[in-house]
Amino acid sequence: MELLLFSTAFLLTFAGFTLSAEPCPPCGNTTVPFPLSTSSSCNDPSYKIRCSSSTLFFDTLNYSYPIQSINPNTQRFIIQPASLISNTCVTTDKIHQGIQLNNTLPFNITSSNTIVYLNCTQSLLMSPLNCSSTSLCHSYINGTVSASACGGELCCSYRAGGSSNSYMIRVRESGCSAYSSFVNLDPVLQVNRWPEPGLEIQWLLPKETVCGSQGDCDTTKSSCGADTRSGNGINRCFCNSGFVWDPVQGVCAEVMNKGSTDRTALIAGLTSGIGALLIIVIIATLLYKRHRRIVEAQQRLAKEREGILNASGGGRAAKLFTGREIKKATNDLSSDRLLGIGGYGEVYKGILQDGTVIAVKCAKLGNAKGTDQILNEVRILCQVNHRNLVGLLGCCVELEQPIMVYEFIENEWSYSYRDRHNEGIGISGIRVLRGTKTEPTFDERGSRGD
Ligand SMILES: *[C@@H]1O[C@H](CO)[C@@H](O)[C@H](O)[C@H]1NC(C)=O
Ligand SMILES: *[C@@H]1O[C@H](CO)[C@@H](O)[C@H](O)[C@H]1NC(C)=O
Ligand SMILES: *[C@@H]1O[C@H](CO)[C@@H](O)[C@H](O)[C@H]1NC(C)=O
Ligand SMILES: *[C@@H]1O[C@H](CO)[C@@H](O)[C@H](O)[C@H]1NC(C)=O
Ligand SMILES: *[C@@H]1O[C@H](CO)[C@@H](O)[C@H](O)[C@H]1NC(C)=O
Ligand SMILES: *[C@@H]1O[C@H](CO)[C@@H](O)[C@H](O)[C@H]1NC(C)=O
Ligand SMILES: *[C@@H]1O[C@H](CO)[C@@H](O)[C@H](O)[C@H]1NC(C)=O
């Protein structure tokens, strides 16, 4: 059951990651991750980039920069900054006023960028930028052959990402004429160990997919509705209850609600627990019933035996042997003491404590009725004056089987042993005795014998 729940959750999780919008085809060998979009019909078109001759480009307001790498997990990509026009200290994008992002678009410049400004005017000295003689820009110029033209001009450096410079690296006549950028620069490094120039751009996590109608949405997971948050009349595919917007994958993902999984786990646990409990209870009941039956049977036997005890209280009856005595005499009814097996049961040879050799007849215990009969017969036999019976010493009613104890007479027992197929030994012979005098005459006979 848990397995079923688990696999269902597993399937749902995976189903949750199918894209609701068309993914963009790769650009050359480069995949275009969500939400970046190379056309108005794939991923999220508000994250527009451009694919041209198998290369991705990021278009700013006035210019275009090749994308070097993309990390969809951190929502960042790195563009290649403009280079210097050879033998000048002017970058190629100066005519476009450097890098200027449309600040209504979801992209900005990250604070991982270290910017060096080159060929600056004195007005920059008023800026918060580091334009001192120890500024990193001097190291850059000194260590970079292509920037040699910049030597002797004022230069500055700064770390990008402030509110005023997260959308532009402005290059102009009244400011600086050139720049370069380095991602995650360690300033203590020698210039020849600096990374390649690059500018890291970050994108905002996307909102739900824009839609014109419900048909644009994944019907099972989202519904097309007005985006009241922006209030610009845009409709978006808002996730249905049970789903939550995943801005990295760009899908409505199944809510892995801890409470509900806990509940289902609890229900599953309870159900299987109750099932196990039921089985245990059934088994316990059966065992108990069986035990009760055995106990009841034993109690009935005990009662019968008590009856025999009481009946034999008359003083005349044969001796009542204990189970212990019988076991000791017959070496625990061992098979090498077995004299024979008859219709009545088994006969063992035994030696009593005082040396008397005995024959022990164990009644065969069949069904309850048989047991009762045998017990009855044993009782009768034990109550009969044993003068009338050849060699009856007594009986034992303590063991599971009622037992008759006889004197052991070699010939007789060997005869009986031989005759075992012919009703065998024991009670059959007594029946004859009983038969000659007709039915319930044992007590009479007993008293007559007195
Ligand atoms: C694309 O990859 C293939 C093999 O992986 C390579 O031969 C080819 O030059 C690559 N193309 C580009 C544009 O990187
Ligand atoms: C520095 O910038 C100015 C203004 O753009 C330009 O005229 C000059 O040529 C630049 N210096 C070098 C060495 O390129
Ligand atoms: C840069 O683009 C903006 C908006 O498109 C435009 O107003 C501006 O004139 C452009 N500047 C240059 C130097 O191209
Ligand atoms: C900036 O982007 C918005 C949204 O795409 C667009 O409407 C606007 O025209 C853009 N601004 C410029 C100056 O291009
Ligand atoms: C400018 O940068 C250098 C090198 O990083 C540093 O040693 C210096 O203290 C900075 N100066 C100012 C005024 O920030
Ligand atoms: C420029 O670099 C050379 C070695 O490459 C070094 O000797 C010199 O001091 C550096 N000059 C400045 C101003 O950093
Ligand atoms: C740039 O974008 C990130 C999210 O991508 C945002 O946290 C940060 O505030 C933005 N920076 C500015 C100056 O708007």
From TrEMBL:
Q: Where are the transmembrane segments?
A: 265-288
Which domain of life does this protein belong to? Answer: Eukaryota
UniProt-annotated binding residues for ATP: 361
Q: Where is the Protein kinase domain?
A: 333-450
Coarse class of the protein's main subcellular location: membrane
What are the record's GO terms for cellular component?
A: membrane
Instruction: Give its localization.
Output: Membrane
Q: What is this protein called?
A: Protein kinase domain-containing protein
Q: Which residues form the signal peptide?
A: 1-20
PANTHER family named in the record = LEAF RUST 10 DISEASE-RESISTANCE LOCUS RECEPTOR-LIKE PROTEIN KINASE-LIKE 1.4
The way this protein sits in the membrane is described as:
Single-pass membrane protein
Q: Which InterPro entries match?
A: Kinase-like_dom_sf, Prot_kinase_dom, Protein_kinase_ATP_BS, Ser-Thr/Tyr_kinase_cat_dom, WAK_GUB
Instruction: Give the organism, scientific name.
Output: Lupinus luteus
Sorted alphabetically, the keyword list is: ATP-binding, Membrane, Nucleotide-binding, Signal, Transmembrane, Transmembrane helix
User: Which GO MF term does the entry hold, naming one?
Assistant: protein kinase activity
